[in-house]
Amino acid sequence: MDATCIFCRIAAGEIPAKTVYRSDAVVAIEDLNPQAPVHLLVLPVAHFAGVSELSQTPGTEPVAAELLAVASQLGRERGEGRGFRIAINTGEHGGQTVGHLHLHVLAGRALGWPPG
Ligand code: AMP
Ligand code: ZN
After folding, report:
1. I need a labelling partner for 90 at 20 to 30 A (CA). Which of 20, 51, 99, 103 fits?
2. How far is the CA of 110 from the centre of ligand 2 (A)?
3. pTM higher than 0.85, yes or no?
4. What H or E segment, with its residue span, contains residue 28?
5. Is 100 an active-site residue?
6. How remote is the CA of residue 82 from the centroid of ligand 2, in Å?
7. Pocket residues for ligand 1 (CB within 6 Å)?
8. Whole-angstrom Cα distance, residue 43 to residue 29?
């Protein structure tokens, strides 16, 4: 755990968040600043700076699979059959502002494409 990382601290329960899913490896919370009627964040409990750091670390395939499974299940449930979007912002041009891997799950309205 990185004590300076806000999502590590949320995963450890040190900073409160509205948690909608928790296992040993994955936590899902409501985004503090929602961009859609449904806006959840699905994150690994272990610290990975981004998706590349996870995918380049041997043995993390089960965590990657759980992140995707949880995000898609929440999107299916909360999207009420009308669809959803999973996004992983990565780096400066990708719009990443928190340096701990997280999957956005957005639903509840028609989402524009392409993103700005
Ligand atoms: P990104 O810009 O892709 O790195 O996304 C970071 C997301 O984290 C943004 O949507 C923020 O609103 C959200 N966020 C930041 N701090 C918190 C927090 N303490 N609890 C919940 N969501 C947060
Ligand atoms: Zn972290």
Report:
1. 20
2. 31
3. yes
4. strand 26-30
5. no
6. 32
7. 6, 17, 29, 31-33, 41, 89, 95-98
8. 8
